[in-house]
Amino acid sequence: MTLDDGALDVLFRTARTRNGWTDTPVADETLHALYDILKFGPTSANCSPARFVFIRTREAKEKLKPALNPGNVDKTMAAPVTVIVAYDPIFYEHLPKLFPHADARAWFAGNPDLADETAFRNGTLQGAYLIIAARGLGLDCGPMSGFDKAKVDQSFLAEQGWKSNFLVNLGHGTDANLFPRSPRLDFDEACVLA
After folding, report:
1. Up-side HSE of residue 43: CA atoms within 13 Å toward CB?
2. 3-state SS assignment for residue 32
3. Banded model confidence at residue 176, pLDDT cuts 50, 70, 90
4. Strands, sheet with 50-55, edge to edge from the N-terminal-most edge strand
5. pLDDT of the residue at 177
6. What is the C-alpha to C-alpha distance for residues 79 and 18, in angstroms, rounded to an integer?
7. Torsion of the alpha carbons at 77, 163, 154 and 160, rounded to the nearest 10
8. Domain limits, the chain
9. What is the C-alpha separation between 42 and 116, in angstroms, rounded?
10. Helix axis angle, 112-136 relative to 28-38, nearest 10°?
11. What's the whole-model pTM score?
12. What whole-number distance in Å separates Cα of residue 18 and Cα of residue 21?
C-alpha cells in the first residue's frame, strides 16, 4: 500500500513548522491516541527509550517559561500543548518486556556510553514519529531546541531520571509568524547511490 499525494502532503510536503496557534484545545484523548500511534515506530531492539511530558495547563506552562529561549516564549505560551520529548537513560530495564526473545538488557547494563547513545538516537526517532503521528491526526507542530535542558530536566524530569531532548508545540496552527518555506537540498546534494 502506498499513501496518496494528499496524505504525503499532510505529513511532509505542505506541512509547516507553526509559530502561531489558535486557542482550540487538544483533548487528552487525542494525546493518548497520538502516543498509541507513535509507539509503533521502529527502534533498535524495540528499546523504546522516549518519554513524553505533555504540558497543557497554565501552571505547567509557567513552570516551563523560565527555561525557554526568548524567541520561543510567546509561541510556546500560546500553544495548547508543549511536549517535552525526553529519554530514559536506563530504558534497558524495560527490555525483558519489550524484547523478550533475547537478554537485551545485558547489552546495555554496565555500558553507560552505549546506553546513552542508544537512548538518545532512538528517543530522537520516536520524537520524529510524534511529529508525523500528530500531523496524521490533524495537529500542527512546532518542534524546537531553544531551551535550557538543565532547567527542564530539573523542573519536569528529575523525579523519573529522564533527560530532555527537544520540545514540540502542538495544536491547530495559524499563519501568524509563518516564515516562507525554506529551500531543501536536492537529491544529488544530500544523497549518494553506492
Report:
1. 27
2. helix
3. confident
4. 50-55, 81-87, 163-171, 140-144
5. 86
6. 10
7. 110
8. 22-173
9. 18
10. 120
11. 0.96
12. 7
